[in-house]
Every structure is written in C-alpha cells, then in structure tokens.
Amino acid sequence: MDSKQIREKYIKFFVGRGHKEIAPAKLVPENDPTTLFTSSGMQPLVPYLLGQEHPEGKRLVNSQPCFRAEDIEEVGDNRHTTFFEMLGNWSLGDYSKKEQIPWFFEFLTKELRLPKEKLYVSVFEGDGDVPKDMESYEIWKSLGVDDDHIFFYGVDKNWWSRSGPPDKMPEGEIGGPDCEVFYDFGTPHDEKYGKECHPNCECGRFLEIGNSVFIQYLKRTDGLLRELTENNVDFGGGLERLTAVSNNNPDIFQTDFFADAIKSLEAIRKSSAPDYKTNPRPYRIIVEHLRAAIFMVGDGVKPSNKEQGYVLRRLIRRSMVQSRKLGMIGDEWLSNIFADLVTPYIKQYPHIDKNVPQINEIITQEVDKFRKTIDEGRKALKRIYTKVFGGIDPDNLQGNIIEGNKLRISGDEVFKIYETYGLPPEISQEIMKEWGLEFDEETMKEAMEKHRELSRTASAGMFKGGLVDHSEVVTKYHTATHLLHQALRDVLGPQVFQKGSNITADRLRFDFSFDRKMTGEEIKAVEDLVNERIKQDLRVDHMIIPLEEAKAMNAIGLFNEKYADKVSIYGVGPDYQLDPKALDQRDRGGYYSLEFCGGPHIEHTGMIGKIKITKEEAVSFGVRRIRAQLT
User: Fold this and answer.
1) What keywords appear on the UniProt entry (predicted)?
2) Which domain holds residue 522?
3) What is the mean pLDDT of each run of 10 residues along the chain (631 residues)?
4) Fewer CB within 10 Å of terminal CB in the chain, N or C?
5) Are residues 524 and 425 in the same domain?
6) Whether residue 250 is found in the same domain as residue 275
7) What is the pTM of this model?
C-alpha cells in the first residue's frame, strides 16, 4: 500500500465518523516567535485545545506537513526524518478514550490490514496524584490485545504537556496520559540496548506508529492537577512510518516517498562508491534532506545564515557532503532525484507542483554557492599542507605522496576552516586524505562540541515548538501587522503581499513582496497611515465564514493554499467614513484591513498605542523587511 492510499484511507475513515477535514497549516508558522517550524499536527490547534471554538466544530482530521530540526543529526538510520507528514484527528471536548482507541485499532487492523499480533501498546503507569490509566488498559484488553502486548511506562514516555511531566507544568497548563502503538517487525534484539526488548527499545525491532493523547488535567493554582469537565483527544501518526509497516519493511526509505530517488542515486554513483545495501546512510541523508528543503523553499524560505534560512542551508550542504561520498562532485545528485521526490506530493500539495521551477532554481543556486565554499576551503587546506611540507604543492605530487606524510595536525586548524569558510570536516578529511595528511580527530571533536554547546545555548527554545505568545503586547503587535500590511498596499500598490512575520514583546518584523528599497517619504507615509488608523480607534471584527464568501469580500489570503470550507478572517475599521485613498476599501465591505487569520487580536485599534518604523531592509530578491516598535 502506498502513502497516497494510506492518507486517503485515514481521512475518509475519520470523516466517516463525523470529523471535518481541515487544511494543513503552513510549514513556517506565521506570527509565532517561539518556533521556527510547524513540528506537529496539534501545534496550530493549541488555542482550540485550550478552549477556543474551532470554526469546523469539535471533530477534526487532517494530514499536516511537519519539520523537526532537532532530529537532523539522527537522520541516517532506517526511521528518522526531519520532515514528515503527521496524520491527525482531534476531539475538542467531544469523545474520549472509549471512541478513540477502538477507532485507531480498527483503522490499523481493518483499513491497513495489520496483524493484531504485530501490535504492541504502551499505557501510562501513574504518577503522584495522577492514577494509573486502567481505563485505556481495559479498552485495549476488550479489543483482544493480550497482556504481554501492553506495557506501562511513566511520565517520561506516556505523559504529554507542553511543559513536560506534571511537576513541571505551570499554573493553567493542560496535559494528560497517552497511549502509543508500536509495530513489531520481529527483528532479532540487540543486547547492547538492554537485556530485554520492549516497545520503547531502540534496537529497531519496534516502530512507534501512533500516539493518542488524552488531555484530561489542568494544573491548579495550588500546584495540584484537577480533571477537566471536557476532555480533548489529540492523535498523531507518522505517514511515512504507517506506510513502512503496511509493507512490513522497517526501512521507511524503501517507501514510495524515497525508493525511486535512491535508485536514481545508485544509477549515477561512482563505480567505487557503495550501493544502498552496502552503506545506506549517505543515500538516506541526501533524499531526506532534499525532500525537506523542497518543502521549505515551497513555503517561502530562502537559504541564509539566520533562523529557517540557516536550517535550509544546512540541509542542502549536508546533502552535498554525502553526495561527494558517492563520487558526485557536481549537482547531478540534485538534478537526477528532484522529480522523484516531488512526484508523491503533486496532487496533495499543489503549491509545490506549481513552483517546481523556482524551488529547483533556489536549491541549485545554493548548491553552486557551496561548491565555491569547498574551493575556498581547499585553498586554506593547501596552505596548511605547504606550511608543513616546506612549500610543496599537494596538487603537483603527480600521484607520489611524500613518504611519512601521515602527519596528524591539530583538529583546531580544520575547525577554524569550518568556521571561516563553512567547509565541513568530512570534506576536509576527504581532501587531506588525497594528500596523505590527517588531522587529530580528538581535538576536532572537542572544538566541535564547544561549537555545538554554544549553538544549543544561543538557540534554546527556538526549535522546541510551542504556543504563540498571547500576551497583551504581542497581541497589540499582531493587530498592528494587519494595519501595516494594508498601509503598505495603499502606499506601494496592490502587488504587495505579506511574506512572513515575527513578533516578540519588543518589536514586530514584517516581510513583504516588493522589488526595491522604499524611499524615506514612503516609509513615513506608511507609518502615518498606521498611526492614523490606531488613533481612529477602529473596531476589530472576527468572522468565521464560507471560503467563497471571504474571497468575494476580497479578504487577503493565499488562494493557492489549501483552505477549509469555512475560514477565520479579521476585519479592522468598519465604523468610519470610507477613505478614498484606500485602493479597494469599498470592495472589502468598508473594512480598512480584511485578512485570513487565526488570531489573536485586540478588540479595537486604540489599544495599540503608537507605531514607529525603525528599519526597512532587503531580505532576498523581491522581498523587503520592516521592523517596528510600539512607542
């Protein structure tokens, strides 16, 4: 069974049980400074899990593209990916365990036809004032799952909250026990992972394929947990993993997402390079990272040295490092597998299909840049060589490596080249090996570890994912971005569209499409327009209306994106005389600003205060950035 069939079966199964299919969120969240990427299906739904009413009701289902930067070093085994699709279904105060557990079991055994004896389950064992989850245990037993297939684990494995275990949850936080389902491939246990094998063992025998979280508790002001009157269900299951188990193959890279691309790589590898069976790691990293890069670029990310752009650049460059291990020093690895990786997504994600040429061009440009980095790094390595060997040029050895050249230089030298030019140590090692020169790997590891520790400290919290900051000041900034967006369109023209934003308690940052630097007069005109609308103290209206009605009202949105039948839009400013300077205000029903948005917003613009634009700058070709602060 391929991934397309499984995705369709899953959506159809839950729609048939009263769920409404909702559109997936963007891979790069908007107006959320706490996370770089959407990392789970539930992340965009946190406000609704906290009690906000969802426009599509209490039962929801979708397939959500996700990215987890923290898994980048894990890629290379048979199961880890940075990018994946999460199949999800949710109950917002509707059903709970007695519906969710049998439904998922039925989907696995009836729709995917997985043998019941291959399924193992983990259940919460209890902790402090949270009892052992015997209700879930009894439901699994009633479905015919034997005792020796049900395992109890503690808060580190079978408890969910955004803050971790119950004792770490702040006042007002929600959480609850979860049930994970694992598939048993029956592979022999490796005792280096422990004497006994079990579902959470890392030996490779078991693969987690789904997790049902039962949000039953709220942290009280006295530090204790109380049960909620209405429970929520949050289910997530990786599509890649479900595809692998439906074919009884523990290697997710042999699914239809990757198999053709890997065959294409094998066909163009250097004859002396290993095939996939001999050494699968470089193949897996190349196809996994390039697939993730395709989706990032498709969502508007450009390679850079900051935030999402830095992650994208790292993925592309890691792919290049691995391609050299297969004897590919050009971009043949990219041109030969690009179409293979795009094909499985053409019908599901039209924005990828429509932008294939642009995506390919952006990634190819980054590949070309990195090739120049390799050339610069190689020159630096040559300087080390000639210094050690008295001016001898390693490129003129004519195949005769100088006797005794197996000299081990300090790894710090190679790390300096990495920091200066961005040349990865793996490539440095490859180049130096040609010259008979080696570096001390221990000092290299020490230098790398110091670098990683600094990186972890600097980016603490950026990759963890989480809830949008709903503080009052951030909410003011969010509403201000709507006014700013429309003011830019009024001053610069209707070709201006938002390309991203980032909001903290200290400032707003707003990216928009425009092909030149703004003049000082234009910046002032935009600032004055925003502050004029703030001074008018305009009402902010929230509407949940049919998609076609929102289009007819000329609400600003990206209509090549996949939207639900009903959408959430915010309108600013119906209670004042229409401004003849506004481009299309009358067509927007009198609203000065009308945009697709999930919130949150203040109730009227007078609450904002005053905005000062502090900087206008370029982000990339055709994209500008404004920074502004409340004064």
Assistant:
1) Aminoacyl-tRNA synthetase, ATP-binding, Ligase, Nucleotide-binding, Protein biosynthesis, RNA-binding, tRNA-binding
2) 472-630
3) 95 96 87 77 84 90 92 88 95 94 97 96 90 95 95 93 84 90 92 90 91 91 84 94 94 95 94 93 95 93 86 90 86 90 88 88 90 84 78 63 55 76 76 72 70 51 38 83 93 88 84 91 95 90 82 72 73 61 55 83 88 90 88 85
4) C
5) no
6) no
7) 0.72
